[in-house]
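Comment thread on ticket #2218

A.B. wrote:
> Attaching the input chain for the structure job we discussed in standup.
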Amino acid sequence: MPLHWAVIVSIFRLPQVDTSNENDIILIRIIRSQIGKPWTEAKENILNRLPEHIDPGIIDKFIDQRDNPGIYINAYGVEPRFYLHRISKRLLEFYPSK
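C.D. wrote:
> Ran it. Output below, let me know if you need it in another format.
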């Protein structure tokens, strides 16, 4: 019995490449370069340096922009690594406590 073409295709299908991790690393490096800067300046610099293939909305995955930042799980299911200082609104990074 000959194999159906869909079966053959599924056998030889190439694995999907997950670019989200690579994009996350690129974005984190860009964000880290702006640590300590006022958020309005930092955000503009981050957006200007962002490669075209990365959605600017993904910034919310890593930066807690709430008025009272803290550790929480955001809509992306992760804890943001960066936050804005409550008073100065400068971009800062959370450091894990041990």
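A.B. wrote:
> Thanks. Noting for the ticket: The longest helix spans residues 20-32.
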